Amino acid sequence: MQKLSLLAGNVFSGVPLDRVDNLRTDAAWIESRINDAASRFVAVWNQQSIVFGGSAPRAALGDRIALDGLIDGNTPLALLGIAPERGGIAYFAVDVSHLPQEALTERYAGGALMDLRQSVQLVPAQEAAILAYARGLMYWHQKNGFCSTCGHPTESRRAGHERACTNPDCDMTHFPRTDSAVIVLVHDGEECLLCRQSHWPTGMHSTLAGFLEPGESLEECVAREIFEESGVCITDVRYHSSQPWPFPASIMVGFMAKAASREINADEKELEYARWYNRDWLRNVEDSDEFRMPGAYSIAHRLISDWIEGRF
Ligand SMILES: [Zn+2]
Prior knowledge:
Layout: H1 4-7, H2 27-34, E1 40-45, E2 48-52, E3 58-59, E4 77-83, E5 89-95, H3 101-107, E6 111-115, H4 116-119, H5 125-143, E7 154-157, E8 162-165, E9 173-174, E10 179-188, E11 191-196, E12 208-211, H6 218-230, E13 234-245, E14 250-259, E15 273-278, H7 279-284, H8 299-308
The chain binds zinc ion.
Zinc ion is lined by residues 147, 149-150, 152, 165, 167, 170, 172.
């Protein structure tokens, strides 16, 4: 049993499900859970999920009846896990991207299809974590219908946690992939380094980030990315926390690092600019079109907040 209280951290983590890897190959058990009226189904439509609005918005985690007539045995489906705190009922993700949008909004009356970046700001955190898990897994299925080794079609196995090549001469097994990215709060005493990219929402500033490359440790990646993007050298790299980031298939690994140089030479292909920001100024600044923090659900927001308040 997972000790969820110990693992709870950033938004999108803390999925309140036991992933029951040991039951994924039990075809009879899976079939009985699919047909159990108590089981819950998370419909994913082109990476969006349904949210019911109102004064207390909730994610649509409906039963099988909600999808009757819309899905069949060929609809991509994966077991997410069972909910220990809800009598062990099973949760499934189901990809309904093949349906017209209206078919879903008619069936889930009062609900609306929503991207995770929007729904995370509305629904309870544990539901947002389930939506993130479902979105990430369904995206992987969507993008891996053909074997990357031989080009033949693949098919889902292990309750949606593997895909196997259907070419008997190949027989390659494919597993869900997560791209590692580092995200870093660089500080120098009372100032920290933030940047802006031109395609971000108006005024939004954030920490620097970049993808891990083959043959590179996370610490090396931190130093390389910060230098490439800002020209600043860093030292004292310390791990902070991580965040599942299914946009579309990443994990953000968060670090704090101390600046070893101050001169900024921003990579203009990546950044609009990078600048040093004073701790007290950041503590007191109000969001505006000139400056706003990244979304409160993001690890970037937490890195900046923890640094401002000296929590790390
Ligand atoms: Zn193959």
